Task: structure prediction
Amino acid sequence: MTTPAPPVRALARVASEIVRCRRCPRLVAHRELIARVKRRQFRGETYWGRPLPGFGDPGARLLIVGLAPAAHGGNRTGRMFTGDQSGDWLFRALHEAGFASQARSVSRDDGLVLQDAFITAAARCAPPDNKPTVEELERCRPFLLRERALLGRVRVVVALGRIAFATVLATERAAGRALPRPLPRFAHAAVARLGARTLVASYHPSRQNTQTGKLSRAMLADVFARARAEIEAGTAGRAPGS
Result:
């Protein structure tokens, strides 16, 4: 039985809806203020200043879920984890594990290609203090549900941070999938089986975690090495779309 072609057009429609979203007044005001005021080093640039859709390989077997765009990273460049230190850490780890064509991402047209991986987030707008509210996360969740439904080949999900981890579980529940009991708890490198898929937790590669030593490059590399091993071994399940 052949695997259906990746739903490129359907993902593009979801992306178009995300970019136009204005459901959360607090987030709209914040992202647009940042785009007007800018950071001094980026004063000559035009900020994206809108919500961010996911991006990557529509046929991906690896799904990466982050927290939200950075105010002067994705909110500036228009692509998840692009143009900030968190992205430098993430793309280096993805490159080493064979999921990215290069180890850095600085702009939407820098030539980066994700291979067998798709990156998305729990919230699509840069939130004040990097803290979206529960209500904002709930309003954003339908977008992740739709992306998740279209990415039918996903076998491993890597959640970057506690909020992303909780969002993945909430998305599974909202999709009508049974969750394991007891409910999986967040811890770096924790692994949970979600039916035909495997959820791997990681600390977020934020400055707060990387500069304090809470997350090392080796720790992050190990997460994606585990994801690669799960995919190659087929232990994350074999039922497309389940």
Residues 235-242 have pLDDT under 50 and may be disordered.
